[in-house]
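From the shared-data thread, chain only:
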Amino acid sequence: MIDSFTVQHCEHVSQRSFEAVVAAFEAELGSVEDRDIIPREVAAATGQADFEARIRAYEGRSGFMRFLTNDHGAWMARVGARAKIRSYTIGNPLVAQTMITHDPGVGLNVPIRVLIYQTPSGEVRLAYDLPSSLMSRLHNGNVSAAALKLDAKLRALAVLAAGAEA
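Structure, as tokens:
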């Protein structure tokens, strides 16, 4: 099966430096970048309430946590290119479950990806694909309702970090 659908791509153009946007963004996130954290907390949880409490301990102020950071600029420097580019995989299992319980296909797009980069002209951008648009191909009202809430959380984080609307 091959499916086509429209995705809304958002970019917040910041007046701040790349470093300032990265710092503001990362300050709002918790971290589970150690790949053993989630499996350890799943194994240790004694039930749903305990699992939720354990996961909430890793949330940042934004309600998101960082699963992975890729500093593309660091490896590009090794091949002689100068670039300021970081991609992040962020999310929250407790938010994801509000969608995945209705359709496991949600798992393709959560956790979500965010890119912070500086253009060749020096403009700093924070970019992502709007979760509700990614989930739209599932045609599931419950998923769509939860994804709209995720949109709002992500948009608030982006505005806070970039200091600008998309």
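The radius of gyration is 17 Å.
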